[in-house]
């Protein structure tokens, strides 16, 4: 097979592959499942593999590297103008070839496993922080409806809630008091998880000789731990 470039439209379960020759003419098209695509990478002679820089592309990029392929990840926003007709897996693969041909689009480096792990940890922390804020706002709203105001600031609010719950004179129905207590405990558990994750992030970044990924700067901008 006269293959010099393999464009892959990466999906969860189906991979659309367009193989081009030296003249950038498509010589064959194939559709693979995950197992078949892994076998394709392992058995195809080293060539140039082009994919959009989506989340899973970094995993497949590492897989392709292990089998001797050169890998180019192109930003999706730069590939989109090359899509002809209706957007399908087939036209997406063709667009990748068209975008890669001039060689002028800046590629995205394939993240190593450590880099991708670090980015994933930051995403988990962000989700936990968002959930924590949402739970505290829920408590504020519920208590406000009962005529009880929490002080400004998450730390002050969380210190006040046990005082409210332990005061038998507080005008709260027993069922509501129990639910508020459960939400409060959930927030405290989230804070324990966040602190543990921040220690892990700090350990990883302290051990790194240089920043592993631009996303890692998130940690530098938010070195504070959750206040208790």
Description:
The longest helix has 34 residues, at 174-207. This protein is of the alpha/beta class and 228 residues long. It has helices at 34-43, 57-66, 76-79, 89-100, 113-145, 154-166, 174-207, 217-220; strands at residues 5-9, 15-20, 26-32, 48-52, 70-74. It has 2 domains: 5-100, ATPase, nucleotide binding domain (Nucleotidyltransferase, domain 5, 2-Layer Sandwich); 113-220, no CATH class. Residues 211-228 have low confidence and may be disordered. Helix 5 (113-145) packs antiparallel against helix 7 (174-207) and helix 6 (154-166) packs antiparallel against helix 7. It has 8 helices and 5 strands; from the N terminus they run βββαβαβαααααα.
Count of helix runs:
8
Name the overall outline. Answer: elongated
Could you tell me how far the N terminus lies from the C terminus, measured between alpha carbons in angstroms? 64 Å
Characterize the largest beta sheet: strand count, sense, and whether it forms a barrel.
5 strands, mixed
Structural class: alpha/beta
Relative strand content: 5-15%
Widest beta sheet: strand line-up: 3-2-1-4-5
What do the pLDDT scores average to?
88
**C-alpha Rg, in Å?**
25 Å
User: Which consecutive residue ranges, at least 5 long each, have pLDDT under 50?
Assistant: 211-228
SSE order, one letter for each helix or strand: EEEHEHEHHHHHH
Give the total of domains: 2
The amount of helix comes to 40-55%
**Quick one: how many beta strands?**
5
């Amino acid at each position: 097979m006269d293959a010099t470039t393999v464009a892959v439209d990466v999906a969860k379960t189906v991979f659309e592959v367009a193989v081009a020759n030296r003249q950038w003419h498509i010589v064959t098209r194939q559709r693979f499942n995950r197992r078949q695509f892994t076998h394709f990478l392992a058995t195809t002679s080293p060539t140039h593999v082009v994919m959009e820089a989506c989340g899973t592309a970094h995993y497949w990029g590492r897989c392709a590297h292990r089998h001797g392929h050169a890998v180019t990840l192109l930003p999706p926003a730069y590939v989109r103008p090359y899509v002809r007709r209706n957007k399908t897996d087939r036209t997406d693969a063709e667009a990748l070839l068209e975008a890669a041909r001039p060689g002028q689009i800046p590629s995205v480096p394939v993240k190593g496993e450590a880099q991708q792990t670090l980015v994933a940890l930051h995403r988990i922390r962000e989700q936990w922080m968002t959930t924590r804020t949402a739970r505290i706002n829920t408590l504020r709203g519920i208590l406000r409806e009962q005529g009880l105001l929490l002080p400004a600031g998450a730390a002050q609010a969380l210190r006040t809630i046990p005082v409210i719950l332990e005061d038998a004179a507080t005008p709260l129905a027993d069922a509501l008091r129990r639910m508020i207590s459960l939400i409060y405990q959930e927030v405290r558990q989230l804070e324990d998880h966040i602190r543990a994750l921040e220690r892990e992030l700090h350990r990883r970044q302290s051990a790194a000789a240089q920043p592993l990924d631009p996303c890692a700067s998130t940690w530098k901008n938010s070195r504070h731990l959750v206040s208790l």
